[in-house]
Specification:
18% of the residues lie in helices and 26% in strands. The chain is an alpha/beta fold. It has a single domain (15-35, 69-256), classed as Glucose Oxidase, domain 1 (3-Layer(bba) Sandwich), CATH 3.50.30. The protein has a 9-stranded mixed sheet. Strands 2-3 form a two-stranded antiparallel sheet. Bound molecules: oxo(2-sulfanylphenyl)acetic acid and manganese (II) ion. The site of manganese (II) ion has 5 residues, from strand 4. Oxo(2-sulfanylphenyl)acetic acid binds next to loops.
Length: 265
């Protein structure tokens, strides 16, 4: 009898499979989404020292932390959106954990996003990607690479008088991904939707259509330029928050080393 995990253990040990961290550091300075002022707002990450090997705790250091569920690199559950409010097992604590480990494909939109802050992922781009790499496999994560994670400070939200400007998918692109029966969709920007996503029909189409279909989101991802278009595996388990609509998390990718032989380890 062979253990199918033996191959993975050997590949991790010899470096022929690498671990790539797709997570931003939780930091009070990391930007959070800013909604129009009539709406409730997302809290940033906060950290307060409880003790630091001192009178408050002579042998230990620890912090109290707080944040919104959608702060930093984070997972979106179906119940985050009104369209998914009645999805069965739609809260983070209810989702089958098999969802949190699975294949991932990456659609590189970095050139377009460098030229146009409002760059749109369209069905045409998805069709062209599939012509090169094959059909998007059912039940896979689809990540939109924009290199937005390399932006710092105000350039990340990219606020203008008419609101934020950042790339994202059109409603038709999300419909195309749903026709492939994907598992979820992830981005390097502050939302799965474009900064101007409120102006589509439906508004915020990634949130509305994905979550209505019981699919998942990932936002504020990093290092997508280190992933291949196909062939990597994503590990993305949110915190088990009772009734949670999402959660900050550590997102890892298992990536075949470029040489494929492990000799570069
Ligand atoms: C609430 C309202 C609108 C949006 C969002 C949250 C997110 O992007 C999020 O973090 O899920 S667009
Ligand atoms: Mn979110």
């Amino acid at each position: 009898m062979t253990n199918p995990l033996d191959g993975l253990a050997a590949a991790l040990a010899d470096g022929s499979v690498e671990i790539v961290d797709l997570t931003h550091t939780l930091d009070p300075d990391f930007p959070v989404i800013v909604l129009p002022p009539e709406f409730g707002q997302c809290a940033r990450f906060r950290m307060e020292e409880v003790s630091a090997y001192d009178g408050r705790g002579p042998a230990w250091k620890w912090h109290n932390i707080s944040m919104n569920e959608h702060t930093g690199t984070h997972f979106d559950a179906p119940i985050h959106w009104v369209s998914g409010r009645d999805v069965a097992n739609g809260a983070v604590d209810e989702i089958d954990p098999s969802v949190f480990v699975g294949p991932v494909v990456v659609i590189d939109c970095s050139e377009g996003a460098a030229r146009n802050d409002d760059f749109e992922l369209t069905p045409e781009i998805i069709v062209a990607w599939e012509a090169e790499h094959g059909s998007i496999p059912a039940d896979s994560w689809v990540l939109m690479r924009t290199d937005w994670s390399k932006r710092r400070g105000a350039d990340y939200l990219n606020m203008a008088d008419d609101g934020p400007h950042s790339p994202g998918p059109t409603p038709a692109a999300i419909e195309k991904l749903l026709a492939r029966n994907i598992r979820g969709f992830g981005t390097e920007t502050v939302g799965t939707d474009a900064g101007q996503g409120a102006h589509y029909v439906p508004p915020y189409p990634a949130h509305y259509l994905l979550h209505g279909a019981g699919k998942y989101g990932l936002q504020c991802l990093s290092n997508l330029d280190r992933l291949p278009p196909t062939g990597a595996m994503l590990i993305a388990p949110p915190l088990k928050i009772k009734g949670g609509t999402g959660s900050p998390l550590r997102v890892l990718a298992l990536v075949p080393a470029r040489t494929g032989s492990g000799e570069n380890a």
